[in-house]
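Request:
Um, any thoughts?
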Amino acid sequence: MDNRIRDIEENIKDKQIRNAYKEVGSLKASFQPHMDLCRGTNNEILTKEEEIKTRWKTYFQDLLTSQQQQTKAIL
């Protein structure tokens, strides 16, 4: 990362603005922030990995259970 920043600075000093902008663009494109958060059943924010996994598990179980009940009701 430090080398890339130095390259950008050198490009600017050498008046190679196009190359500097390309380097900056590649730095921005490679950065993709993400958050590992999830909302619980009571709308609380879950941050711990195990809590999030448990919440997804219960969500899909509830989803599949409701779909199975709807299928049985149709039949």
Summary: The chain has two domains: 1-33, 38-74.
